[in-house]
Amino acid sequence: MATSIDKKTGLVLEGGGMRGVFTSGVLDAFMKHDIYFSYVCAVSAGACNGLSYVSRQPRRARISNIDMLQKYDYIGLKHLVMQGSIFDPVLLYERFPNELLPYDYDTYFNSNTLFEMVTTNCLTGRAEYLSETSGDRKRLVAICHASSSLPYVSKIVTVDGKPMLDGGIVDSIPLERSIEMGHEFNVVVMTRNYGYRSEEKDHKIPPIVYKNYPRLRVALSRRCEVYDRQLEYVERMEAEGKVACIRPQRPIEVGRMERDTAKLERLYEEGFEQGELFVEKMKMGQYNGSNKD
After folding, report:
1. Which of these, 255, 237, 230, lies nearest to 172 by C-alpha position?
2. How far is residue 51's CA from residue 115's CA, in Å, rounded to a whole number?
3. Distance separating alpha carbons of residues 239 and 234, to the nearest angstrom
4. Which pLDDT band holds residue 3 (cuts at 50, 70, 90)?
């Protein structure tokens, strides 16, 4: 019997490149217990993982992130030189969903879940929250591709005639969007430990970079500040009991473009364990997913 989630409860999935294997583990635990949300808002790697969650395909994201990485080595400079993106886009967004790891489009489009993916509009420098419900498979994949296209090392992706990049540039943790959509309580899957703050420093982006997109350059010059402010907001909402966070319990050793599959496997397993812990607390009537205790 499925465990019900209130329709006023949203699920928010942070990005983080290959740190997203933690989210893969959490969502596999949710699927194991038949737990699904009516609204999911996800960005970047969270969008990729969220797609397999809404289509109800357990372990698909894990296989993509770990097994297929080991087999195809789809991260590297060779892909950047040959295809303009450091993550092999043909493999990930064409061969995976249509051939190697067939995506269940029918289940996705018949789902009762509203799934929004965050992209950054390069012209406006603002976040856009896109969903695809009409059955357009190519547009669905294009939105996910755009949401996951890291600046500097990925090509700009066109969606609905607009140039788009990674949604994490302006909204790495789309909690405010979920609240705006009417969700009074939210479960947020993070890919950083509690208390983390960015060690990077913001700097002005020179005009030669993205010269046709001045507002994108402004957004890129504020990334660290915006991200740290979002982390503070999530922790404040968590302390007020309005958010349950599922996150790694300690600083993680996996990088955004990690290729060490042993490290990725350990982080996936931690995500699965934390997902199981959340389910256990939820069944006991608790919504506190914090790992501070």
Report:
1. 230
2. 8
3. 9
4. very low
